[in-house]
What does this fold into?
Amino acid sequence: MDLTFHSFQPLGFSLPDPLVDLERIAMNFYWSWQPDGVDLFRSIDPALWDKSEQNPQKFLSDISQLRLWQKANDPDYLEQLAAFTGKFDAYLAEPAKDEQNGPTKANPAAYFCAEYGIHNSLPIYSGGLGILAGDHLKSASDMNVPLVAVGLLYRYGYFRQSVGHDGWQQERYTNIFTAGLAVEPVYDGSGERLTVSVHIRGRIVKSQAWLVKVGRVKLYLLDTNVTDNEEVDRMITGHLYGGNTETRIVQEKVLGIGGVRLLRKLGVGPHVFHLNEGHSAFLTLELVHEYLEENPAATFEEAQDAIKECCVFTTHTPVSAGNDAFPTGDLLPCFSADFIKELKLTPEQFLGLGRIDPGDKNEAFGMTPFALRMSRTANGVSEKHGEVSRGLWIDMFSENIEPNDVPITFVTNGVHPPTWIAPAFQSLYEERLGKDWHTLVSDKNAWSTAIDLIPNDEFWRVHSNLKHLLIAFIREKTRVKETGSADTIHEHRDTRMLCSPDVLTIGFARRVASYKRWDLITSDLQRLLKLVDDPARPVQFVFAGKAHPQDWTAKQILQQLVSINHDSDWQSRAVFVEDYDQEVARYLVQGVDVWMNVPRRPLEASGTSGMKAAMNGVLNFSILDGWWIEGYNGKNGFGIGGLDVESEEQMDEDDAVALYDTLENKLIPTFYSRGADGIPHDWVAMMKNSIATLTPQFSSDRMLRDYLDRIYKS
Ligand SMILES: *Cc1c(COP(=O)(O)O)cnc(C)c1O
It folds into this structure.
């Protein structure tokens, strides 16, 4: 691993005068959720744009001066650039809107999260949590909500995935600065780099601040790669979810405690601190510390009661591995005795804050119990997850409390429509519903009526084109693979015939984890292959997803899947696309026919990829868990199985049968039943129902509105 440290060096590029606005546009991720913004870069050199992995910094530094000057002399392009620049400037010029009893320009909401999935060119996310946080910021920007966000800048980001001939996942880490990053150093009033100090490992560790512009929203990232720090401390923010328990604890100290100190230095006095997942919960200790400095006579409990009033917590998973719990032997050495004393706590009392039962010395320090104790409100991320969380944490509350009275509510997740709806659909809506079609999304009835009026053939045409695009992408992505001795679903000698645009295509992309049951679809291989090989009505599959580098079981699941080698059409009708990220996700959720999700109930807190698919008319084919219980209406996709929770074995068995039955009796017949015009009208009706009903309900604008009305207000 490359341990040399690079200081910040913006990639060098110099733009012809007529194109200088591109530099400003490239430094704000606003372009990434505007089809005309993306086009501004791509249209200069489409092949290089893909080669640069849609990273404007890299793209602009690699592009030839000749090509730039050609564009600088192209009136059409200059007109396009001027139009976008005008739109961008007008967007930025609008001041944030104060919320009554909520965040205001003077006292914004402060959003804390360990990962952010803004765009694939800023690889500081691993999956759902990060994407959700990114979409939260984008909606805050679009809705002009006063919100500032805090996170960490991981120098080596999250890993890039490849899969070897043997099907075993391999990880690659690269310094994310080498490709160029749209982040800016933050300076203080005297022109020095703005840093904050946190006491870590018995010494002072400095973190420097970076700024990421997400439209109107500012995202600040802390990074310990500062020359004053010792070598090991410079790697605290080295990898997202990397390292051992101690690394995680000190990372979370930088995020929480460093994050509050950063906001203070920036002069930001938040109306509310939103702890998005428990990783940032140490921020509450800093708030207590501040309070006790100002109110020396107060007790810890008084301070706790006071600071709780401005802290809200969102829990994201009912899976125990997803809830950070630190053995007390690891945790205590990470906090100085003085700090704990200054909080007016004994070490035992401190440890008790993170336990379900504070007196149980064997219990680890859980960030979820800790965050629950230190926040005014707590919420899960779907109605079902709220209920599951109340049951999960009930023991923290008084003995006779009824499950329904446990103070954990819910706000169902959402995704950002402009980020996830295919540009081709956006332009169809623009044509049919008008330029400001997005405003219709917040009006359920108007949106649904408008969608219904669009003729079926237009929907089908847009969808078919997206499907062709996906298949071309798959063939291209897998073409460069050198193969071993045989074709497998991730390595192919010849990809020209891989997948067919006429075949019912099922997408399955998610983190590899056992509860997601990657193997459910292959559990009855004979029954599955019969469907895949059906000459008249075949099905094909596209898989993608990463296993956590330290999760051996997950890597085995992946290996098993990609190693299925069979004398059937499986090899050409199933494909695994490596390195699932936002770019791959976009192709998939926009181009497949069906989005499959088969988690073991009730472990999917919400799920968000299905929402992205739904907004593109891709029909969900999913277990009734998480968001899908709320979204499914019988006509906008397919439900698998029922709502009962049985033993794990029974559930796996029943769900597998339900999966195949639904596939055979509903999906396949509906998809292949065509009118004289070749269009599957019943299917298209479901696509339209999906877009009409699920887009408003699962938009991140709706989610943010819920947070403003029900959580941030005080
Ligand atoms: C949306 C998304 C996720 C989260 O999907 P879930 O359905 O919530 O698991 C993970 N990774 C990427 C790259 C995504 O785009």
Q: What stands out?
A: The pocket of pyridoxal-5'-phosphate is lined by residues 127-128, 131, 510, 580-582, 585, 607-610, 612 (CB under 6 Å). Confidence is low (pLDDT under 50) at residues 1-9.
